[in-house]
From TrEMBL:
<dbReference type="InterPro" id="IPR012280">
    <property type="entry name" value="Semialdhyde_DH_dimer_dom"/>
</dbReference>
<dbReference type="InterPro" id="IPR036291">
    <property type="entry name" value="NAD(P)-bd_dom_sf"/>
</dbReference>
<dbReference type="Pfam" id="PF01118">
    <property type="entry name" value="Semialdhyde_dh"/>
</dbReference>
<dbReference type="GO" id="GO:0009088">
    <property type="term" value="P:threonine biosynthetic process"/>
</dbReference>
<dbReference type="InterPro" id="IPR000534">
    <property type="entry name" value="Semialdehyde_DH_NAD-bd"/>
</dbReference>
<dbReference type="Pfam" id="PF02774">
    <property type="entry name" value="Semialdhyde_dhC"/>
</dbReference>
<dbReference type="InterPro" id="IPR005676">
    <property type="entry name" value="Asp_semi-ald_DH_pep-lack"/>
</dbReference>
<protein>
    <submittedName>
        <fullName>Aspartate-semialdehyde dehydrogenase</fullName>
    </submittedName>
</protein>
<feature type="active site" description="Proton acceptor">
    <location>
        <position position="253"/>
    </location>
</feature>
<dbReference type="GO" id="GO:0051287">
    <property type="term" value="F:NAD binding"/>
</dbReference>
<keyword id="KW-0521">NADP</keyword>
<comment type="similarity">
    <text>Belongs to the aspartate-semialdehyde dehydrogenase family.</text>
</comment>
<keyword id="KW-0560">Oxidoreductase</keyword>
<feature type="domain" description="Semialdehyde dehydrogenase NAD-binding">
    <location>
        <begin position="6"/>
        <end position="138"/>
    </location>
</feature>
<dbReference type="GO" id="GO:0050661">
    <property type="term" value="F:NADP binding"/>
</dbReference>
<dbReference type="InterPro" id="IPR051823">
    <property type="entry name" value="ASADH-related"/>
</dbReference>
<feature type="active site" description="Acyl-thioester intermediate">
    <location>
        <position position="158"/>
    </location>
</feature>
Length: 366
């Protein structure tokens, strides 16, 4: 690629925004030229704005540390400098929906980490290996917004990444019922251990909104684009019930899942389906795509956060402990990196897919 697409990161000073900035450093297709945040950070250099609250293990990338932070509400100014934006803003859902649509209406595509538009019927919610075809709904969204190139696409909740990919690999066996309990890292709340003393030596058995997302979002991901209605229609099955707990782990969401199938697959068939599962990102060799999307670990004590969370640079999924259950057909444990695959990394892979599909292009002028 001779010329990189120019990118803005909205909400760049928060934890997910910081992950965007670090993952995009040296990206072969995308270059961060704008960082934007709340008015209290606007006017400072990026390095000044995150001073004392930089949460990444890697240092601030040299290419962005001296960029002047803009106010996210400076929509026209930001849109005039970029080909598209990543959104990780920290606002109310209503405010996020409004500002993301305002950016899209400037003919600037928005790839969002936020949940505000996940249930907007003509907004695709994409895990690129699972439902890349959902981008087809963008043409209907553009009609609604009155845009030629502007649109919004979102990635799903980080908690479902630890079990939904396995279920996707097993769709040919027709899963009917799923119980999924997730044990979620504190970085999912935008915190580290310094920010969350309440989690030390503790488990908190409630995360606002997570159980509804965990139960419903996979159904949209497995749904179909209805060409007549111009929207995505979720599937009705499998029925998922979930509990979500916050645990004293920095990165990595673990799921303990139980599943019933209409078919009766063997353990060997289930493992083979996991290990062979791949999608468009692997076929196209997208820059952020893991070569191996799902690994199956045979050891009794795997997957573990400390050993497995960074599989494929955090973009792969680890599954283990697959065994028969006394009530359900099968049970297993899954693990995903919540800020790589589950947040910024998943959104970057989504943008790479949309670029490869022709939905994100360079603007003709700035």
């Amino acid at each position: 690629m001779s010329k990189k697409l120019k990118v803005g990161v909205l909400g760049a000073t928060g934890m997910v925004g910081q992950r965007f900035v670090t993952l995009l450093a040296g990206h072969p297709w995308f270059e961060v030229v704008v960082v934007a945040a709340s008015p209290r950070s606007a006017g400072k250099t990026y390095q000044q704005a995150v001073a004392g609250r930089w949460k990444m293990a890697d240092p601030i990338p040299a290419a962005v540390k001296d960029l002047t932070v803009l106010d996210v509400s400076q929509i026209d100014e930001i849109a005039s400098q970029v080909d598209f934006v990543f959104s990780a803003v920290n606002m109310s859902k209503a405010a996020i929906k409004k500002i993301e649509e305002e950016y899209a209406k400037t003919e600037t595509p928005v790839v969002s980490n936020n949940s505000a538009h996940r249930w907007t019927p003509d907004v695709p919610m994409i895990i690129p290996e699972i439902n890349p075809n959902h981008s087809e709904v963008i043409k209907f969204q553009r009609q609604r917004l009155g845009t030629q190139r502007g649109f919004i696409a979102v990635k799903p909740n980080c908690s479902i990444q630890s079990y939904a990919p396995a279920l996707s690999a097993w769709m040919k066996f027709e899963p009917t019922q799923v119980v999924a309990t997730t044990y979620q890292a504190i970085s999912g709340a935008g915190k580290n251990f310094d920010d969350a003393p309440e989690i030390l030596n503790n488990v908190i058995p409630y995360i606002a909104g997570e159980e509804e997302k965990s139960e419903k979002e996979p159904l949209k991901i497995w749904g179909k684009v209805d060409q007549q209605k111009g929207e995505i229609i979720p599937v009705a099955a499998p029925v998922i019930t979930s509990q979500c707990l916050r645990v004293p782990v920095l990165y990595g969401h673990t799921a303990a899942a139980f599943v019933n199938f209409k078919q009766q697959p063997t353990k060997e068939e289930l493992i083979a389906a996991l290990e062979s599962y791949a999608g468009v990102p692997q076929e196209l060799g997208l820059p952020s795509a893991p070569k191996h999307f799902i690994q199956y670990l045979t050891e009794d004590d795997r997957p573990q956060v400390q050993l497995d969370v960074n599989f494929e640079n955090g973009m792969g999924i680890s599954i283990g402990r697959l065994r028969p259950d006394k009530i359900f057909d099968w049970k297993f444990v899954g693990l995903s990196h919540n800020t790589a695959r589950g947040a910024a990394g998943g959104a970057i892979l989504c943008a790479e897919l949309l670029k490869a599909q022709g939905y994100i292009t360079a603007k003709q002028c700035y």
